[in-house]
Amino acid sequence: MDLVPHPDSPHSDNNSGGGGGVAAASSAGASPLSSPSRYESQKRRDWNTFGQYLRNHRPPLSLGRCSGAHVLEFLRYLDQFGKTKVHAQGCPFFGHPNPPAPCPCPLRQAWGSLDALVGRLRAAYEENGGRPENNPFGARAVRLYLREVREHQARARGVSYEKKKRRKNNPAAGPHHGDLNGNSSNGVGHHHHMPPPPPPPPSGAAV
């Protein structure tokens, strides 16, 4: 395989949920009439990368014969381009979110990168004529693998991948982040502190 990591890939490890970038086998040019979104551009690069992987497979593998097992093989292959340190069980920094020193543990693709990649490839498969019921990226084995990677990396890196539940903000209140600390999205805000009403006018006074 002669794939190389793409330095500008959105699933590179320059954020908390990122991992190593997937290779860009061939970048399709943008349409002169419309510029594709970043998501669409990345999905196209990922699809081209997967297609090149199938062509380089020994023996070569057609998309119609691709199964969940081949997707898992592809995901494991991408680990060589990963940039996320995943500590081994015997490492003294196992479970340490901020290791104080380097260690020889391997670099891997982060769970967040793999999860996003599978989502893009699952959509690209059906956009390119694949039948949803035959989509290898939606196979149960792939879902179980992603769950296993998430749980293992959470323990090894000492991080949590639990999704935070967001509360619905009041549109009239404008954009704010009060729901993150529970102080202003539950109706307890400064806008409820109304000034007291003025005293009534004296009897017989003109209004």
TrEMBL record:
GO terms for molecular function: DNA binding. Residues 23-37 have a biased composition (Low complexity). Coiled coil: none annotated. GO terms for cellular component: nucleus. GO terms for biological process: mRNA transcription; response to light stimulus. Keywords: Developmental protein, DNA-binding, Nucleus, Transcription, Transcription regulation. Its main location: nucleus. Residues 195-207 have a biased composition (Pro residues). It comes from the Eukaryota. It is found in: Nucleus. PROSITE patterns: ALOG. Residues 38-165 form the ALOG domain. InterPro entries: ALOG, ALOG_dom. Residues 1-44, 153-207 are annotated as: Disordered. Belongs to the plant homeotic and developmental regulators ALOG protein family. PANTHER family: PROTEIN G1-LIKE2 (PTHR31165), PROTEIN G1-LIKE5 (PTHR31165:SF123). This is ALOG domain-containing protein. It comes from Brachypodium distachyon.
